[in-house]
Each structure stands twice: as structure tokens, then as C-alpha cells.
Fold this sequence. Notes:
The chain is an all-alpha fold. The chain has one domain: MFS general substrate transporter like domains (Growth Hormone, Chain: A, Up-down Bundle). It is 76% helix and 1% strand. The chain contains 18 helices and 2 strands. It has helices at 11-27, 34-37, 41-48, 52-67, 70-101, 103-109, 114-147, 152-181, 183-205, 241-245, 248-269, 271-277, 282-287, 289-307, 312-330, 336-365, 370-399, 403-421; strands at 215-216, 220-221. The longest helix has 34 residues, at 114-147. The radius of gyration is 21 Å and the shape is globular. The relative contact order is 0.16.
Amino acid sequence: xxxxxxxxxxxxxxxxxxxxxxxxxxxxxxxxxxxxxxxxxxxxxxxxxxxxxxxxxxxxxxxxxxxxxxxxxxxxxxxxxxxxxxxxxxxxxxxxxxxxxxxxxxxxxxxxxxxxxxxxxxxxxxxxxxxxxxxxxxxxxxxxxxxxxxxxxxxxxxxxxxxxxxxxxxxxxxxxxxxxxxxxxxxxxxxxxxxxxxxxxxxxxxxxxxxxxxxxxxxxxxxxxxxxxxxxxxxxxxxxxxxxxxxxxxxxxxxxxxxxxxxxxxxxxxxxxxxxxxxxxxxxxxxxxxxxxxxxxxxxxxxxxxxxxxxxxxxxxxxxxxxxxxxxxxxxxxxxxxxxxxxxxxxxxxxxxxxxxxxxxxxxxxxxxxxxxxxxxxxxxxxxxxxxxxxxxxxxxxxxxxxxxxxxxxxxxxxxxxxxxxxxxxxxxxxx
Length: 432
């Protein structure tokens, strides 16, 4: 039944259709991403009577606990494929969002109070982060990776550009839903779309790797005498999970995107407050995602074109420097120069981030155990992202502004910049 539309009929176009539905899948994760939750943050503070630190702690706990399950989710993907993984993840995300829409009532049912309310909201955060940011993202991106090889950088670049635009307008759409229907009904509507509509798309279009259909990556049929374009970075050995864990490169190339995940989660979660501390309005705060997305798309367009030809460490250098400048700019948003520098640098990081986290895994470790290794990398990314909101909220509580958190993150970007210098592609050790 899931083969209603067969890849064998039009192999070249099906690869790009996989890319399109993969992008839709990543967009469907937006309610479980911090950029989607940020539209609800201030409404939750009012409805649940929690402090910013308490809500941040709940979000951190939920994200951390969700991260611990992602390696197992990657193993599930390797065993059962993209379709089953995506269907289960989207249904789970929808149910979690509907639960969150009733968090205030659930808390009241159990007697209310800060501890009970934090526990109730924590449960919801666990599952929107696990199913949304974690499993559905893993399934969608890993599926696309399996369908491309020589053109993998270009494919991930296109996916990233589509999702960057989608994520940039998500907070505005969610904010309009909240204004029209209230935060609770807005989450019910979004949960219904995730849990009822997207599973149908995943069931029809999500597929295993092209080899399962007698095809090769990049839309080439094995039955045709077409010489596939060879990757400049051939894979000589498929690493299993335990072997990948022993590689220094895994921890650096997963750690750098994880650091950015921590930063962008913390900034996005408190975006209205951060801008308010610098004398900027809520409208300016919410609208900032659109120019960042424009900068990200521009960067992705260039980076994706060169990523199939250059070593990833060069992109990592640019990523790290942009991260340092973005953190410094965040301390002086009231100045127009630093406001636009912040947008440019976050755009560069957002443009390169998906390329690094998606491309290094198959390039360094092969595709045979890609789900499990991706699950490990996603665990690192999601776990780190859990720390962002509390780091930034504690900075505000302890010092009265967000500068301390920005300086700490800038120092960490410098650490990974230095670490990247000492990394190499593990495949070079196996080159004949």
C-alpha cells in the first residue's frame, strides 16, 4: 500500500520528490521546534502561573529526556524504514500538542501548584521534542540522504532553503492562530494537522533507500547503462555505532551544530524578552526570523553548491566564526550595526548548520548504520539544545541581562573552532 506511487516509473524525478516530501516532513516538525514553541512561551507563563526560570527548567528537562531516546529511534529507523518511523512520529507529535493544549486543566486536576504544573508541562515537552525535533527530523533528513550521493550537498541545500523559509514564518502563523483562537485551540489545530494530515503524506511518499527499488542514488536506474557520477568523498568502510562513537570527528562535527542548537533554542525561547531588554518591540522580535531566513537561504545556496567539492571542516570554520560574532552582536542589539550583523551571522550559521549535521554522517561513516549514528548525533544536538533556555534565563536572573550567556556561548564556539582544526574524515584511514 505504501508503494501506491512507485519510484521505478520515473527514478530521476522520484529522487527530487523524496526531497520535497522530506522538506515537508522537516517543516511539520516546527511545532516541536523551539521556533514554534516560542510563539506560545509568554502565553504559557500567564496561563500556568510559572516564572520564566520554571518554564525554562521544564523545557530543559523535557528536551534532555527526549534526547536520551533518540539513539533507539535511529536503530528503529534502520530496522523499519522511513515510512513507519515518520508515521509514528507525526501521530505522536499531534497527540503531544493536543495534550499540551490542556496542560493548565491537567495541572488543575492534580491540584495545581508550581511543582505539579512543571511536571505536567514537562511531560508535554518530552514528547513534542522527541517526536518533533527528534524522530520526525531524523526520519525526513536521513531519508533524503539515502536517496542522494554525488548531489547530496545540493539536495540538502535545497531542503534547507525550503525549511528555512517555512520556519521563518511559522512563529507568525502560530501567533495569528493564537490571536484568533487562543493558545489552547491553536495547539489543537496544529496538533490535528500534524497527527491526521501528515501521516497520510508519509504513508504514501516516504520510502526506503533507492537500492530497494533497483535504483542508485541521484535518480539513476541500475537497468540503464548510465555511469553514476562519483562522489569526491568515497566511502570505503561503513562504521557501526560503537565504531563511530570512538571517532573524535563525530563529537566535534555533532558538537558544533549542537552548540548552535543550544544557542538558537535559548535565543528563540526568550526572543521577545531579549529584544525587550534592548528596547525593541515584540513585533520586531517575531519578525526577525524572516531576514535571518533570507540570509540563511542565501548562505545555504552558496554553501550547498560548494559542499560536494570541499572538505566540511572549511564550512565548520566559517560556522564557528559566525557564531562568535553572532553572540557578540546579541549583546548590543540596540545598535543598528550589531542588529544587522546579528541577522547576517545567525543567517550564516542557520544556512551551514543543516549541511554540517546532515552531510558529515554519511560522508564520514557510510550509510549502512546511518539511522543509529544519526540518532546518536541527534541525541547530542537535542540534549545540548535543552540547555539553551535555562542558560539564557539564568543569565537574566543573575545579572539582569543576557550578556553573560552570550559570552559563554562565544567561548564555546571558539573551543569548537580550535577542535575542528584537528579533525579528519575517518574514511581516509581506509583509503586503498
